[in-house]
Structure formats: structure tokens, C-alpha cells
From TrEMBL, chains A, B:
Residues 49-162 form the PurM-like N-terminal domain. It catalyses: thiamine phosphate + ATP = thiamine diphosphate + ADP. The gene is thiL. GO terms for molecular function: ATP binding; magnesium ion binding; thiamine-phosphate kinase activity. PANTHER family: THIAMINE-MONOPHOSPHATE KINASE (PTHR30270). It is an enzyme of class 2 (transferase). Its EC number is 2.7.4.16. ATP binds at Y127, G144, D145, R171, S250. Mg(2+) 1 binds at T67, D68, D145. Reaction mechanism of ThiL seems to utilize a direct, inline transfer of the gamma-phosphate of ATP to TMP rather than a phosphorylated enzyme intermediate. Pfam families: AIRS, AIRS_C. This is Thiamine-monophosphate kinase. InterPro entries: PurM-like_C_dom, PurM-like_C_sf, PurM-like_N, PurM-like_N_sf, ThiL-like.
Length: 357, 357
């Protein structure tokens, strides 16, 4: 059927072969689609391009807002992702973006597209996970939209948070010689996913399958029930540290550090032997003949925080606990590199396939 | 594969037949899922249950937030919904919820799940519609999330707005003897959809189909490019009218008025011969042997505003222009009825299948 022409001016389709979305890449696509939008409202302090949008709220405070879409078959596989965990993780993914702005998460809106194969009991499980995460992170569920889907399960989360205007941390504030800090450990979530995928392959077609996870519970938990680091944002406030830049690690250390370098117009050196990797991650990586550092750099979904602070704050950062200094910010023209123990330098490349918003 | 037990307590599935979602109905499902959530943050002024969530922002103002999910095959059919119109309408659907709270729309976040069949040029069209709507309604695009979908197109919109705290209009404030007012006319969007469905049926299998829309352009526009009544919210402010209750007409007059009655604990009488219906709606309804009043009551997607004002404001409301008084609020125990010209009373029933958030 031809395009309907009403009183709206339809942009005529160019008479050429359509361009595949993959050709632009995910970040390129967002830039392409949003470049031509201008900002009109004085309350819009920051739009597209950071972990969350920043909107004026009163004289001293701002509202932070972020949205994430989780799609069945893309972001999760219901054959091994328990719905309760999925609900929990959906909240974490969104709340983590607010924490990465140094914000206090406060409200949540959850919209679901639900296929007929999903029962009320299954949704109860999903919401039990959402409720558990809301309680843990002291966030209020304030709205949403639920409708039938003709395809798979779609979960959309909008998270709202609050911060004092001068304490919002953007990606673009890292300065020369700043320390690059990281919370927790990296690569475990990716290994958890590899474990689940392996068991799924091995047990395909088996009736009443009994997957073997013994000894790897930690990896599973890191993938299925990652933590949002609200504790770190609270510790930063206690130590009166406002990082110069911050991002949450959803795409992997390499991709996310490059986002900071791009926004801050700087380079970086991180040291391979400083990257925190859990014992269980290393053990399972060996078992499946993978390099755990690659998992840390490119695996993603760790939802730890990556931030930079001035050199002078090193002692205060170390006092916080649970934070490792893994490198420092360099001049933009020196690029971003991983330094190996023998002094070799490997250029960091973005490998994430997930949108950073 | 069995459920993975990590350190999260999984709620055991009850050992009984799963409950189908349809058995609860859409409103029932939302109540069921959200009943057990409690509110923790002082900034949460209103959560689930109105057109938008209301969040404190400074001393005198509030932030309004609403989300809507539009799914291919459920909310739109790409065989006849031009992408530019779809982008426009996605914004209208969300912005309309803010207007229904008497709010000023200011920011927008758009997330897309995009299947591989959609080209960059198609997304350009979608975003051209979004941009057009943003310009018209003076809203800033401030974020989103774009990812590949293995199924159809999913569009998720979060809209943020602002209002003075004492000027927010909820659904629950209608008082006995208040006038029931309506903007524009009803049922046209539903007739536009019927027209498109008819042409799709007629032209199925035809090469280079040429659908016949002559004379019905108005109906198509009302369905494909509905207006959000920002003008009405501005006129209300000019006339210094703060309605006692308000809702946007997305599910149809019957269902939406019943939402006001439920929230305000009141009844209503509306008069059949006062319901504004456009000439084109009546004409096409006759052509397809349908009752235009049924389309007005149950069709939905008109995105007009339904509001109540004290009797004393009748003159000021009439001075606004573009508003019809169609009835009045009665005591709760008298129910909600449509009064026919011969004095008969027909009980109003909710027919909408769409979520009201």
C-alpha cells in the first residue's frame, strides 16, 4: 500500500538502495538520528550523550532520567534467565546509569510488552524481582504501561534520580593526570553468560536437564543478578569526593573508558596487572580456554563504576575500600592504551554492542 | 533447563495451572502487579494510577513523568502507518498524558527496538516525525536507547513535564455537580483506522495498490497524526481555570470517564446529543453501517482532553472556545450513564483494551 498523504509533509524516500543499520554501528546510528534535534527548554541541562539526561529541578537540584529497553532474544534468553532475576536486573541496568551521574535513584517506571505464552504467575516472578530491587535500592515504582505483544517479552525501564547540581558527574570532566578508578571486579558477568550458554548447548534436547554450575555460582550471580553500586556513590559522598568523570561498566572496560576519553578529550593508560579480576573468573576462563582480561575489557554487563579523580585524592579514594586505581589520564594525542607487565602497549578498541545511554 | 538457584531467593512456582493474563484484564493486571509496592521517597507525590507520575522538583514545582510502549502488530501496522506519522504519534501519545495532568511537556526520551528489515532511511522518516512533533510541542529529545530486535519494531517513549504543584490536575478531584467538558470531537480516529483496515482488506494481494481515501482525509489524519491539546492547557492557564479533574481520551469516552468516576468516587450523566462528532465521522460511519456514537464512546485514540470544572466556571470555559460541556458529575451511588434524547439512560461500560498511564 502506498504511503498515505494527509496534511503532514512526508519526506520522500530517496530513490536508492536502503542503508543497513549495521553499517552505521550503534553509536553512529544514535548520532545520525539525533544530530538535527535542537534544545528549546531552559530546564534541559544535558540531553543525549551521557548516562542520563539532566533536568533542572528547583534552584540547586536536578532530576536525572534514563531509559533502557531489554528485549527477549537480544538481551536475555528465557530458557536460562529466571524471571525474578530478570526483573531485578532490569532495575539494576537503569539505576546504574543514575549512579554513574553521581545521582540518588528515586523513581522507576516499568513498561512491559507481554506475549500470550507468559502467565500471571510468571509476571508475578518478574515483579517480585523488580520489587526486591526497588526495596534494596530504595526506589519507588511510580508508573508504566503493560500491553500484549505479538512477539517476545519486551521490558522497558525508565529511572529517575536526583542530585545537587554541582555534584552531577558527567563523562566529559576527566583531566590530565587524573587517576582512573574502578569498583569491584570485571569479566565475571561475561563468564557467567558463557557458562549458561555452554550448559544450554550441552543439554539441548535432554529431557529434565540438570545443568552443572557447582563452584561457579559467583559467575552466575554476577550475570543474572548484578549489583548496582549505590554503596559506592554513598561512600564517595561520605569522603566528600566528587569524581571528575564517571560511567557505569555496561559495555566493557575498553568501550566505556573510550567513552570517557572521547567526552573528556583525553587519552588514558591502564595497567593490565591492576585490572581486578575475581579468582572464579580466571578459573573458568582457563577451563574454556579464554583470556580473562579480554572478558574484563570487552565482556560488559558488570555494572561496576569507572571514575576519575584528581591525583591529590588518591588517599581518600583508597580509604573508601573496594576501589582499585588502574591507571591515569593522559593527553588526547597519546591515545588510550592497555600497558602490559613487560611495558608493551595495546590500543584499546570499543567492542561493546550495547547502547551507552 | 531448570531454574538457576543463586543467592537470590526464587519464589517457587505454585503447583497449579498458570493463570492467563487476559483473565485479569489490563487494569486488573496492573493493580495485581503493583499493589504490593510501597513508596519510600518523599519526592514521590503520586505513583501508579494517574496519567503521569508526579515528583517534587524544588519548593513549588513538580516533574511529571509518563511512559508509553508502542508495539508493531499491536499498536500500529506498518503496512499502512507511514513511519513519519508513527514518530509523530508516539510523541503525541506520551505528551498527551502530561497535558492531562495540566503540565507543560519539556523533555522526551525515545528507545527503539529495531528489526533488521528496517533501513536507516526508514528510521530517518521515523525521527523526522519525532522531530516535527518535538518542534510543534517545544519538547527536547534528551535520551534513549536503540537496539536490534529479533522481532518487530518497538517504540518506547518517556515524556517529562513540569507544573506548579498546586496546578497539577489529578483524575480524582471531580466534585458533585461539576461540569463534564470535552475538547474537539470524538470517534474520528477510530473511523480512520476502520478506513485503513478496509482498504488493506480490499487491496490484499493487489500489485501497486491504490487505496481510496478521497473525502476521508480528515479521518486518516485524526488516526495517523492526532493532535496533543497543548493549546487547551495554555487556554486554561490564560482563563485561570484549574480543572477539578482531567484525563486524555486514549481509550474512548466511556472508559476514560469511568476512570475519573472511579478515582473521584462519583457518578456522571453525559448527554448523547451533546457529544461532539465531526460530520466526516458520521458520514463514514453511515457508509460502513456503524453507529458514530459507539466510535466516540469506545473507539479511543482521539487524544482530546476530558475535564471537569465547577459549575461557576461555565462561562469562562465557554469563552475558551473548542470546548463542549457534555454532562455533569453526580453522586457515586447513581452510577455513570449516557442519557439519550428521549430521556433513556444507558450504563457506561469500559471497552478500552489499552493501558491508561
Amino acid at each position: 500500500m502506498r504511503e498515505v498523504h494527509t496534511t503532514v509533509n512526508n519526506i520522500p524516500m530517496a530513490d536508492k538502495k536502503p542503508t543497513e543499520i549495521a553499517s552505521l554501528g550503534e553509536f553512529g546510528l544514535i548520532d545520525h538520528l539525533t544530530d538535527s534535534f535542537s534544545v528549546r527548554n531552559a530546564s534541559t541541562l544535558r540531553g543525549v550523550g551521557d548516562d542520563a539526561a539532566v533536568i533542572a529541578a528547583g534552584a540547586d537540584e536536578v532530576t536525572l532520567c534514563t531509559t533502557d529497553l531489554l528485549l527477549e532474544g537480544v538481551d536475555f534468553d528465557l530458557t536460562y534467565f529466571p524471571l525474578k532475576h530478570l526483573g531485578y536486573k532490569a532495575v539494576v541496568v537503569a539505576v546504574s546509569d543514575l549512579l554513574a551521574m553521581n545521582g540518588r535513584p528515586e523513581q522507576l517506571l516499568v513498561s512491559l510488552g507481554v506475549s500470550s505464552k507468559i502467565s500471571v504467575e510468571a509476571l508475578d516472578d518478574l515483579y517480585a524481582g523488580i520489587r526486591f530491587a526497588c526495596e534494596e535500592m530504595e526506589v519507588d515504582l511510580v508508573g508504566g504501561d503493560t500491553k500484549a505483544s505479538v512477539t517476545g517479552l519486551a521490558i522497558h525501564v525508565t529511572a529517575l534520580g536526583r542530585a545537587r547540581k554541582e555534584e552531577v558527574v558527567y563523562r566529559g570532566g576527566a583531566k590530565l593526570h587524573d587517576l582512573i578508578c574502578i569498583t569491584g571486579n570485571l569479566g565475571a558477568a561475561y563468564m557467567g553468560l558463557q557458562l549458561l550458554e555452554r550448559e544450554k548447548r550441552v543439554l539441548r534436547g535432554v529431557k529434565d536437564p540438570e545443568p552443572e554450575f557447582k563452584g561457579n555460582e559467583y559467575l552466575l550471580q554476577r550475570y543474572l543478578k548484578p549489583a548496582a553500586r549505590k554503596d559506592i556513590v554513598e561512600l564517595l559522598a561520605e569522603e566528600k569526593i566528587v569524581p571528575t568523570s564517571m560511567i557505569d561498566l555496561s559495555d566493557g572496560l575498553a568501550s566505556d573508558l573510550l567513552q570517557i576519553c572521547k567526552a573528556s578529550k583525553c587519552g588514558a593508560r591502564i595497567y593490565l596487572d591492576r585490572i581486578p579480576i575475581a579468582r572464579q573468573t580466571t578459573a573458568f576462563a582457563e577451563e574454556i580456554h579464554t583470556d580473562p582480561v579480554v572478558a574484563a575489557l570487552n565482556g560488559g554487563e558488570d555494572y561496576e563504576l569507572l571514575f576519575t579523580v584528581p591525583l591529590a585524592l588518591q588517599e581518600r579514594v583508597m580509604r573508601m575500600g573496594g576501589v582499585d586505581v588502574i591507571g591515569h589520564i593522559t593527553a588526547e594525542n597519546t591515545g588510550a592504551y592497555l600497558v602490559t607487565p613487560d611495558g608493551g602497549e595495546i590500543r584499546l578498541k570499543a567492542q561493546g554492542f550495547r547502547d551507552k545511554e
